[in-house]
Amino acid sequence: MDIIISNTNGVPIYEQIKEQLKSKILNNELKSGELLPSIRVLAKDLKCSVITTKNAYTTLENEGFIKSIPSKGFYVANINKELILEEQFKKIESLLENVVSISKNNNITKKNIIEILNILYEEEK
Fold it and tell me: 63, 57, 16: which is closest to 3 by C-alpha?
């Protein structure tokens, strides 16, 4: 499994693992029902603690991205498309809160922000 861990970016290792696995699930690189590496195998591959990989898997399970089947392992859960969309809306909302805060602190108008957004949307086509 292709997961890259950085010891210098300040993000906890379990969070890096969780986010990369979540991204692979959301991007359909990991398919629904696919068996994930065991906690021990993943820890060995990433050269980290089994507690670290267990924390990543537990968090992903709590968020509904993976499921545990006792004595069989961890599998990618059947993802509800509405859950995925809601997750993306949360990310966008958080980023926009930062944009609004920066804009208000620097007297940048909503009209200016909308112009920037429109330009960025056009560039993405």
Answer: 16
117-22-119 Cα angle (round to 5) = 10
Per-residue pLDDT tens over the stretch 73-118: 999 999 877 777 887 899 899 999 999 999 999 999 999 999 999 9
Domain ranges across the chain: 13-76, 81-123
Tokens of 75: 């599998």
The label of the residue with tokens 């603690």 reads 49
**Dist CA 125 CA 114 (whole Å):** 17
Fold of 13-76: Arc Repressor Mutant, subunit A (1.10.10)
Nearest-10 crossing angle of helices 110-123, 81-105: 130
- The three-class DSSP label of residue 73 is strand
Enclosing H/E stretch for 52:
helix 50-62
pTM above 0.85, yes or no: no
